[in-house]
Amino acid sequence: MNELAITVIGRDRPGIVADVAEVLARLGANLTDSTMTRLRGHFAMTLICVGPAAPEVEAALAPLAAGGQLLATVRAVTPDGETAPAGEPYVMAVHGADRMGIVAAVTRVLADAGGNVTDLSTRLAGSLYVVVAEVDLPPGAAGPLAGQLADAAAGLGVDVTLRPAEPDLL
């Protein structure tokens, strides 16, 4: 079996998730991880599945992309295998007046401290810009990082918070 990364983007409409999931189910592809969102009327989905080879999945998804309404890409990926410890989970929230470079600045501070962004979303509501990111931090990095993030945020005229993440309950 092949592990595949699939992306589907396009103008939002009802039924896209069902259409994609049905195609994959007919092929015997098992969805293992996925995320989907709507961004200002546009649909965006990324998923990982285990199933047939990439060319077979691409061919099966092609009718959904006919007419240019959706773009679907399929790429073979390497299974995770052994991974390094994830680190300590934190949530970073940034809010303030919208301006260029907010995401770039705060994620650079995180990266320079060895932090890894595992999930990130942004929203623009009028002139208010909000960033929420789940991050894994090296042990003991949160204290110094909070100060570095505060410095970066002050330079941008926004507020930032960094707090331990609640464990997922499944």
Overall description:
- With 170 residues, the protein is an alpha+beta fold.
- The chain has helices at 16-27, 54-65, 102-112, 142-156, and strands spanning 2-11, 30-39, 42-51, 70-76, 88-97, 116-125, 128-137, 158-164.
- It is built from 4 helices and 8 strands, in the order βαββαββαββαβ.
- The strands form 2 sheets. It has a 4-stranded antiparallel sheet with strand order 2-3-1-4, with helices on one face.
- Strand 6 and strand 7 (128-137) form a beta hairpin.
- Helix 3 runs antiparallel to helix 4 (142-156).
Residues in helix, %: 25-40%
Order of helices and strands: EHEEHEEHEEHE
The overall average pLDDT, rounded, is: 93
Structural class: alpha+beta
Low-pLDDT windows of residues: none
Main sheet characteristics? 4 strands, antiparallel
